[in-house]
Structures
1.
Amino acid sequence: MQAIIFSAGLGTRFKPWTDKHPKALAPVNGKPLLQRNIEYLQQYGVYDVIVNVHHFAGQIENAIEANNGWGSSVQVSDERDVVLETGGGLLKAQPLFNPGQRFLSCNVDILTDLDIHKLLAFHEAEKALVSFGVTGRKSSRNLLFDKNGRLCGWRNNSAGEEKIPVKGIPADELTAMAYSCVVVFEYDIFRLMKEKGFTGKFSLIDVYLSLAADHRIMGYDHTGDRLVDVGKPESVAVAEALFA
């Protein structure tokens, strides 16, 4: 199985480190975030990895080469010209994926011990197009699910904005969960993104919402697992306390 680690972000919340380095190489207990995610995937037998790059792309490429991919086969999807967000980054990387085969994605700045074997078993049992980890942690933005764990909508808690493409379910029956950024995709996601007209820069959340009414987009609740969003310098200490 292949996986893509989204590593192209500017890391604006992670200054001053990202004034001179990509966030993907920020160390947590001496190991760069990228290495930690590569080793996380290795625990589940995933050694074929794609990494997208933009901000200080050369530093990431040099680190991959110098460390022989930390034991994995690593291909680079080059976004030097323009950063494409998660959805655009995935679509650009399509030529690097094995045609027709299921794959994974994760974000370089998320550290978790979500059990990917359990996520894959859930995905297969649900016969889903996309399945991703979610937890009940507090978040400024939530995905909304029905009682069976199927995605129905999205909410921005700060702005009070909601998008609910799946109709017919009362709002008080939807459960708000936080996105963990570890995702299983069926390869057909590429065809569907193109059919929906997605091009250039766009978010995977927009893809999920555009497909939710007609396809099974499922949330796997792994509340209780370790998870840290290493989005700001002060979150490094939290990550270091949880991940040796």
2.
Amino acid sequence: MRPSRRLTSALALLIVLLVGGGIAFLATTDLSPPLKTLEKVLPDERFPR
């Protein structure tokens, strides 16, 4: 095997492992957004009559 072909194969394998690990991480992690009540007072001047 030529050195350049071995390097290309190693990089391709590394990319596949990183993508697979990222998918596994996202599939097993609970990524729920933080829940917080937001109340904002809007001035009456912003709403024309």
3.
Amino acid sequence: MSIAERKEREKEEMRRNILSAALSLFREKGYDSVSIRNIADAIEYSPATIYLYFRDKSEIFAALQYEAASVMRNHFMPLLQLENPWERLIEFGHLYIDFGLKHSDLYDLIFIIRAPMEHVENQECWNVGMTVHKFFSETVQACVDARYFKSTDTATIAYTLWAYVHGIVALFVRDRMRMYPPEKREELARKSLTMFTKMMEVL
């Protein structure tokens, strides 16, 4: 390995360390309570080191959101193989819950941690997230067109479905299911989605 290659690898490792520490702190303390010094202390470097890689805290958050959104987008790629819109919509729900349970830290970052949205709305991470949402909305519209729903209010149907699965995942991500035995929690989430699926046709 050349010196240039070694330096590039070390640079990438430092960047990953910064992002990993920032993600943990954002989840623990919230966006507003985390400072560049906090992140620097977590990786045992000076704040000046952080500024060699990121302009400010918002840029760190945007980088984390982009990575999280990209992982989520890739998680839904199998849906492209499903031609039937109803089957695609049902599988969308299953994959959404699956993503939240497998990547709770990323889900928290995308949908739960309170942070100024102006930091991300002009970033590529926002475009990635909107691509997923557009695909979801188009799937709902296809179901409406095929008369799988009684209602033709696509926007309200899409919002209702998203709010429902988000609620399921948020309970997991924020550890709000302690009243249920640990071994039953995931089963409850999946059975609940199956039950809700049967109810959706009345929408």
4.
Amino acid sequence: MGEYQHSLDDKGRLIIPSKLREGLGEKFILTRGLDHSLFVYPLTEWSNMEEKMKTLSTTQADARAFVRMFFSGAVECEPDKQWRISIPQNLREHARINKDLYILGVSTRVEIWAKEVWEEYSSKAEESYEALAEKIVGIGL
């Protein structure tokens, strides 16, 4: 969990924050996320996602399209000694990442957002945060 501000280096590499490293493990999967973000999954959670995707109907065009985009953008990452990973150009384009970004710990995954995209998204989400909590989580929060 948490929110971290980082920047890509000149080679398109990103340092994974130390507080997120243990949860990700030595290898993990980076893929297209939603809302112009990237999702990072530990290998065990990636296996869970694969199992869920197998249950989707291949006769539904929406399901096929989602599965194609989700898996075709996936890459296995193995950080170097400084815990840097390279983000492929196609994923940087999907997430609109140029240099500055946010890294978010979100339960079973990590999300990577371009700074401008995250700030716009979080500003809008903040406005309806309480209403969303009541609708989704319920009173027992």
